Give the backbone structure.
Amino acid sequence: MATDISLSTADQQAAEFQRLQEHLCALWRPSNEFDERHRHVLVVPSLSLDQAELQKIAGVHYYEERLLYSLIRLRNPRTRLVYVTSQPLHPSIVDYYLELLPGIPSSHARERLTFFAAYDGSQKPLTQKLLERPRLLNKIRASLDLQSAYIVCFNSTPLERDLALNLGIPLLALDPALLHWGTKSGSRQIFAECGVPHPDGTELVKTAPELAAVAADLWERHPDLQRMVIKLDQGFSGEGNALLDLRSLSPMAPGNTTHRQRSNRLQAAFRDLRFQCETETWSHFEHKIHQLGAIAEVFIEGEHKESPSVQGRITPLREVEVLSTHDQILGGPDGQIFLGCSFPAQEDYRLQIQAMGQAVGENLAAKGALERYGVDFITVHRPHSTPSWTIHAIEINLRKGGTTHPFMALQLLTEGKYSPQDGLFYTRKGQAKFYRASDNLQKAQYRGLLPSDLMDIIVSKRLHFNSVEGTGAAFHLMGCLSEYGKLGLTSIGNTPEQAEEIYQRVVAALDQATPFD
């Protein structure tokens, strides 16, 4: 029975939410495990993050498509899946994912798949749109067997908790009371507790004068510091970062002036911050500091740097599993915006960051965290040192991220598993698999292409994923293509070089089919 959350006190809501969450142990199974039991999965791909920050991402309202790889659960013959979006999905996009399902007729999966849409393209989280539509919620509730259902989401906030309480089913996600551990400041605290190396930084502050004062403290601890990063506490995909160049402020360096003078000069210099989002301004950024808080952190210098990450999962049984490692592909003015990734991370440091990611996961599990987490790192190559790579943890993400859906695509298409012994992914026949993926294959000349046009181009070049050979390209964010010329792509190969070659052949095929005038 649904809970009337409007009549509940905060304590009653918290107790009821915990009661619902206890059912996850009996309901949940990994998405790659064959499960013949009766299950209902409600997928709510809401990006319940700061909406102003999200608008910095081109075509972000199409990112609700990124959880379509959750259809992998329809491989289980008695699983039913309900997928909710802000706007209806084009049927051809749904057909594409159903055709990817191995080992089951697409018609059988289609019969167990239901879609609902809020028909609302406004800049609100999808979950909020659902809560504002009680009639739609009633229809969703009626489509579920509440005794065997749970919710899957992109990230968890009080909105997702309220949705779980309203529907009376558990949420396979973090308790929103623990969201602090996924912020920039919370990440730094966990790294310190785990003994994981991370750049020196400041406490969380909420005004520009406070930020200038703690930044001055940081500079005084590192008199030779060249640059520091200013980070909104809840920035997304690197878009909430800005770079402060200290080299032009050398007269204010420690030893030359007082702390107060240095703070005042830093505050004035904030107007010249180098923002990673090209549309950002200082006045808007300062407003976000008041809302979200910000920290300053040492910028890691180095001629040869990589940006690997570790993805893990804390199961309802409180088991911590490392799922993958990646080398992230970053862009923007200073290489801080996530563009894509390659799997796995380099062999030189793969197992080291895996161990650090495991330690972070165990710390999070002890705090009561659940489901997906990611840890981002920066590694610097120092060829004349031992070890030759210096590792710095940067942040923790307590949500599904840009590396989640490519790895789910790999699982969906190959039915293999990750090996923590060497950090590779193997099919059932023991073939190692590698991929290159991106959320940001974007060119103006691609605008106007429909999903069907994309398929015509890729199939004619024989680049679509081939289930016999186990290589080829799989796509996501196809709804974004016509309006923004933007597409998501995962190219899978038997070697890193083959995965990269397939990726480049896809780009070349699209370029050839859409010559730029």
Observations:
- The radius of gyration is 23 Å.
- The longest helix spans residues 496-513.
- The mean pLDDT is 91.
